[in-house]
Amino acid sequence: MPIPYRFLDFAPRVKEQALSYRLVETVQETVLRANEWIVQSGVRVINLETLMLPIGRGEDEGTSTGRNDFSGEGPLVQVIRVWYVEPR
Questions:
Q1: Phi, psi (degrees; rounded to nearest 5) at 40
Q2: Within 13 A of 77's CA, how many CA atoms are on the CB side?
Q3: 14-17/22-24 β-pairing
Q4: Which of 11, 41, 73, 82 is deepest in the core (most CB within 10 A)?
């Protein structure tokens, strides 16, 4: 029997980028986006957590399913992780 628990990470989206800086969503904006996904997807939320993770593949879209290249090097980003069970 497969384990029903899943998670989805919501990393801040890039709002504006120039050569010398990069403006990203605030944590509050990222939480609002996660809330919208929860309502639209109809999942049953088990837990929410915040993590500091290295920037890797997947953050460009602002979401990740855990398939990032976490080498431990580079800047960190605050991520909202939503643990959920899919609706039956």
A1: -70, -35
A2: 27
A3: antiparallel
A4: 11
What global pTM score does this model have?
A: 0.74
Please check the confidence at residue 67 and state whether its pLDDT lies above 50: no
Structure tokens that stand for 30 in this block:
């990222």
Mean pLDDT of 72-83: 85
Q: How far is Cα 42 from Cα 6, in angstroms, rounded to an integer?
A: 14
Cβ atoms 11, 59 nearer than 8 A: yes
pLDDT confidence bin for 20, thresholds 50/70/90: confident
Identify the pLDDT of residue 57: 46
| Domain ranges across the chain | 5-85
The amino acid that residue 42 corresponds to is G
Q: What is the DSSP letter of 56?
A: -
Report the run of H or E that residue 53 belongs to, with start and end: strand 44-54
